[in-house]
Design goal:
heterodimer; A: alpha+beta; B: alpha+beta; Rieske Iron-sulfur Protein; Naphthalene 1,2-dioxygenase Alpha Subunit, Chain A, domain 1; 7-stranded antiparallel β-sheet; 19 strands; 24% strand
């Protein structure tokens, strides 16, 4: 498996595991120093916004607390396409840009609607047995998300 | 015991002030009347002054009475508002939600205006209108605009309505000392929800629904002082809820707020509802502002703003942003639950679902689980609309015998 192939697998697997709500599986793809954020730019207030931000431990706590909250159960489906992989040989890392589309499917009847579009801006660590996510910025273009979600994209 | 049809439709065992007919949330006629009698005559928050930092900066705003507005800062740095409608052929003047417009020019026929609403030029005016019609004969329709109460830009489409100060009265008294310094919006997003705007405002008018929020149960309801906060009602339908100390660190993964707010006790919380659909929510390290723009009886746009101090250091601002979004961002712990709740109400209270009553009958000496805040809102609604919220179409007056039968059932 080439390096680009392995990195793409990592991105796709991260989407599949979140779709399946396999949060432990998702976190296993993340380096201990993992940093996660959901960001967007608001033209209305002309400012960058950070809508969610956690380290790996914080993300695990968020996942652990989910059953205690009231949440919409409609499943989300994440579709990523890896656009570019830029290796930084010296740092044993790669910067990855992927297009992201997220759909929401209603439990009642199964109608699917678009939930959000944006990009996954990932930093991947390459000096271990397998590539690991060390930073993910879910950069959203969509800023109206209906009733929102408790689960990170 | 379950209820049969007669019992389901019977008036609740409460005074008429303690319940409303759910047609308030579904009826098209009532909605149109609300647009005219309530939104068309109330002071409404259009944006915040920090969204218009420079001369010629503008924001567009869909006024809940129906009119599209431009809110623009002039060369004199004064903020004014106008209909976003060209007086020539009715086109939208400014299409983008934000921008800079020293000259407001209609794309259709190039008529142009300045930021005081004055007509600057009618393209080929002399050739087409001779002396019959000139720039002096037209201009933009100006809307009353006042900046105040934390730097918010308030608009009123009724030229004859009360002034803003008279409208607010003492309602924001508890909060005013904490808004004396310049504020800045750091968060903005909108949500369209299939529900009635009043159902959203209800979630900010009572806290019995903290049962829905795991975060609030742990950090608030189980903490000392929670049940001692009191509602206070003010003229024109406004209401306030007193402060308490929130224990943020009681929620696993959350921590006490390091960045506070000038003059506010650590962990402090002050909430003030402004009729008909705005809520100031000073939550320890930030101010939240929710504004509701109804699009129909069962559709509302809710704008969510988070504000900090203009003087924030980057570190302070970053902490306020985290504090805001972990709870009230689109992926926050509480906001999704609130929206899920009102979305569920919207589903269950649509036309033809046979929903009948919303009960707000809790009485606990006006403390935090008392539903007096909601009763206060609907008392004002009834006064302004000239209709009883519990009997908006006068069914009881039309058929009093039926009403007695229903009550006795």
């Amino acid at each position: 498996m080439t390096e680009r192939h392995a990195i793409a697998e990592l991105v796709y697997r991260s989407c599949m595991l979140l779709d399946q709500k396999d949060f432990a599986g998702f976190l296993a793809l993340c380096d201990p120093a993992f940093h996660y954020a959901i960001t967007a730019f608001s033209p209305e207030i002309r400012k960058e916004m950070t809508w969610l931000e956690h380290d790996k431990a914080g993300l695990k706590l968020l996942f652990d607390n989910l059953p205690k909250h009231n949440s919409d159960h409609s499943p989300l489906t994440r579709q990523a396409i890896v656009y570019t992989v830029e290796p930084d040989e010296g740092a044993a890392r790669a910067r990855v840009v992927s297009a992201l589309t997220v759909y929401k499917t209603a439990l009642d009847g199964g109608i699917t609607e678009l939930f959000a579009v944006g990009k996954l801006l990932d930093a991947v660590k390459l000096d271990g047995e397998r590539p690991l996510l060390v930073d993910r910025n879910v950069r959203l273009d969509t800023r109206m998300l209906g009733i929102g979600s408790h689960i990170p994209i | 015991m379950s209820l049969d049809s007669t019992q389901w439709h019977a008036k609740p065992k409460f005074p008429e002030t303690h319940y409303v007919d759910t047609r308030l949330y579904t009826d098209e006629t009532l909605f149109r009347e609300e647009q005219e009698k309530i939104f068309g005559k109330s002071w409404i928050i259009a944006c915040h002054e920090s969204e218009l930092p420079n001369a010629y900066d503008y924001r567009t705003f869909q006024h809940p009475a129906g009119t599209p507005l431009i809110v623009v800062r002039g060369e004199d740095m004064k903020i004014r508002s106008f209909y976003n409608i060209c007086p020539h052929r009715g086109n939208t003047l400014l299409y983008d939600p934000v921008g800079s417009a020293k000259r407001i020019q209609c794309i259709f026929h190039a008529w142009s205006y300045d930021t005081t609403g004055r007509c600057l030029e009618i393209s080929r005016g002399k050739q087409g209108y001779q002396d019959r019609f000139k720039c002096e004969d037209t201009g933009l329709r100006e809307v009353r605009t006042t900046v105040g109460y934390g730097g918010f830009v308030w608009v009123n489409t009724d030229d004859n309505a009360l002034g803003l100060q008279e409208y607010i009265g003492d309602a924001l008294g508890m909060l005013e000392p904490h808004m004396s310094m310049p504020l800045e919006v750091f968060h903005y997003h909108k949500a369209v929800v299939n529900t009635n705007y009043k159902l959203w405002h209800d979630t900010n008018s009572e806290f019995y629904h903290d049962y829905m929020h795991y975060f609030n149960r742990i950090t608030g309801m189980l903490q000392p002082g929670y049940f001692e906060r009191k509602y206070v009602g003010y003229p024109h339908g406004h209401a306030s809820v007193g402060s308490m100390q929130i224990r943020y660190d009681a929620y696993e993964g959350s921590k006490e707020r390091g960045v506070g707010w000038p003059g506010l006790a650590p962990g402090g919380w002050i909430l003030i509802d402004i009729f008909p659909g705005m809520t100031y929510n000073l939550r320890t390290s930030l101010i939240r502002m929710d504004t509701a723009i109804p699009l129909g009886p069962n559709k509302v746009v809710i704008e969510f703003r988070g504000l900090g101090l203009k003087s924030d250091t980057p570190e302070q601002r970053a902490e306020r942003i985290r504090d805001h979004n972990v709870i009230w961002g689109p992926f926050g712990r509480n906001l999704h639950e609130d929206l899920l709740g009102v979305y569920g109400q919207g589903r269950a209270m649509r036309d033809r679902t046979d929903s009948k009553w919303v009960i707000h009958g809790r009485e606990e000496d006006m403390t935090i689980h008392d539903e007096g805040g909601m009763r206060h809102f609907y008392a004002e609604w009834s006064r302004v609309m000239g209709r009883s919220a519990s009997d908006p179409f006068g069914d009881d007056r039309a058929a009093p015998e039926s009403a007695k039968t229903r009550a006795a059932a």
